[in-house]
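Z., the sequence and structure:
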Amino acid sequence: MNSDVNISGTSLVYKIKGELDDHMAVKSRERIDDILLRREIKNIIFDFTELTMMDSAGIGLIIGRYRIIKDRGGEVLLVIGNSPAKKILRMSGLMKIFKAYDNLDAALTAVEHRVYG
Protein backbone atom coordinates (compact mmCIF):
# COMPACT_ATOMS: atom_id res chain seq x y z
CA MET A 1 0.00 0.00 0.00
CA ASN A 2 1.39 3.35 -0.98
CA SER A 3 0.19 5.44 1.95
CA ASP A 4 1.44 6.89 5.21
CA VAL A 5 -0.47 7.20 8.45
CA ASN A 6 0.41 9.60 11.25
CA ILE A 7 -1.56 10.56 14.31
CA SER A 8 -1.24 14.04 15.76
CA GLY A 9 -3.29 14.42 18.92
CA THR A 10 -6.83 13.42 17.96
CA SER A 11 -6.19 13.87 14.24
CA LEU A 12 -5.36 11.16 11.74
CA VAL A 13 -3.19 12.27 8.82
CA TYR A 14 -3.59 9.92 5.88
CA LYS A 15 -1.27 10.53 2.93
CA ILE A 16 -1.83 8.67 -0.31
CA LYS A 17 0.90 8.54 -2.93
CA GLY A 18 0.30 7.64 -6.55
CA GLU A 19 -3.16 6.58 -7.70
CA LEU A 20 -6.35 6.51 -5.65
CA ASP A 21 -8.41 4.03 -7.62
CA ASP A 22 -10.95 1.42 -6.46
CA HIS A 23 -8.30 -0.98 -5.18
CA MET A 24 -6.48 1.72 -3.19
CA ALA A 25 -9.76 3.14 -1.89
CA VAL A 26 -10.79 -0.25 -0.48
CA LYS A 27 -7.41 -0.76 1.20
CA SER A 28 -7.43 2.81 2.54
CA ARG A 29 -10.98 2.48 3.87
CA GLU A 30 -10.07 -0.73 5.71
CA ARG A 31 -6.93 0.81 7.17
CA ILE A 32 -8.61 4.06 8.26
CA ASP A 33 -11.68 2.32 9.70
CA ASP A 34 -9.47 -0.03 11.71
CA ILE A 35 -7.70 2.97 13.25
CA LEU A 36 -11.03 4.71 13.92
CA LEU A 37 -12.24 1.64 15.81
CA ARG A 38 -9.15 1.49 18.01
CA ARG A 39 -8.41 5.19 18.60
CA GLU A 40 -10.32 8.28 19.62
CA ILE A 41 -9.77 10.11 16.36
CA LYS A 42 -11.78 13.28 15.92
CA ASN A 43 -10.37 14.67 12.67
CA ILE A 44 -9.01 13.21 9.44
CA ILE A 45 -6.62 15.10 7.21
CA PHE A 46 -6.28 13.54 3.77
CA ASP A 47 -2.93 14.55 2.27
CA PHE A 48 -3.18 14.31 -1.51
CA THR A 49 -0.06 16.32 -2.35
CA GLU A 50 1.63 13.27 -3.90
CA LEU A 51 -1.49 11.90 -5.56
CA THR A 52 -1.24 11.47 -9.32
CA MET A 53 -4.80 10.28 -10.06
CA MET A 54 -8.13 9.96 -8.28
CA ASP A 55 -11.36 8.42 -9.52
CA SER A 56 -14.85 8.26 -8.03
CA ALA A 57 -13.75 5.63 -5.52
CA GLY A 58 -11.57 8.29 -3.90
CA ILE A 59 -14.56 10.57 -3.55
CA GLY A 60 -16.45 7.71 -1.90
CA LEU A 61 -13.57 7.19 0.52
CA ILE A 62 -13.67 10.82 1.60
CA ILE A 63 -17.46 10.99 1.95
CA GLY A 64 -17.63 7.73 3.90
CA ARG A 65 -15.02 8.83 6.42
CA TYR A 66 -16.72 12.26 6.66
CA ARG A 67 -19.91 10.61 7.92
CA ILE A 68 -18.00 8.85 10.70
CA ILE A 69 -16.02 11.92 11.70
CA LYS A 70 -19.08 14.20 11.61
CA ASP A 71 -20.76 11.93 14.17
CA ARG A 72 -17.71 12.43 16.40
CA GLY A 73 -17.99 16.21 16.13
CA GLY A 74 -14.81 16.45 14.09
CA GLU A 75 -13.70 17.67 10.70
CA VAL A 76 -12.29 16.25 7.49
CA LEU A 77 -9.68 18.44 5.83
CA LEU A 78 -7.92 18.05 2.50
CA VAL A 79 -4.34 18.91 1.66
CA ILE A 80 -4.07 19.18 -2.09
CA GLY A 81 -1.37 21.67 -3.05
CA ASN A 82 -1.05 21.41 -6.83
CA SER A 83 -2.20 17.79 -6.96
CA PRO A 84 -4.13 16.55 -9.99
CA ALA A 85 -6.80 15.62 -7.43
CA LYS A 86 -7.72 19.29 -7.24
CA LYS A 87 -9.58 19.08 -10.54
CA ILE A 88 -11.75 16.09 -9.62
CA LEU A 89 -12.41 17.49 -6.14
CA ARG A 90 -13.55 20.77 -7.66
CA MET A 91 -15.69 19.06 -10.34
CA SER A 92 -17.32 16.79 -7.75
CA GLY A 93 -18.26 19.74 -5.54
CA LEU A 94 -16.19 18.50 -2.60
CA MET A 95 -14.15 21.71 -2.55
CA LYS A 96 -17.37 23.45 -1.45
CA ILE A 97 -17.89 21.01 1.42
CA PHE A 98 -14.37 20.48 2.74
CA LYS A 99 -11.67 22.98 3.59
CA ALA A 100 -8.61 22.51 1.41
CA TYR A 101 -5.05 23.55 2.21
CA ASP A 102 -1.86 23.85 0.20
CA ASN A 103 0.29 22.05 2.76
CA LEU A 104 0.03 19.79 5.78
CA ASP A 105 1.32 22.36 8.26
CA ALA A 106 -1.55 24.72 7.42
CA ALA A 107 -4.12 21.93 7.88
CA LEU A 108 -2.59 20.85 11.20
CA THR A 109 -2.57 24.44 12.41
CA ALA A 110 -6.24 24.79 11.46
CA VAL A 111 -7.13 21.65 13.41
CA GLU A 112 -5.09 22.68 16.43
CA HIS A 113 -6.65 26.14 16.52
CA ARG A 114 -10.02 25.11 15.08
CA VAL A 115 -9.55 27.77 12.43
CA TYR A 116 -10.96 26.40 9.20
CA GLY A 117 -10.65 28.35 5.98
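Residues 22-38 form the longest helix (17 residues). The chain has a mean pLDDT of 92.

Let me know what you think.
H.
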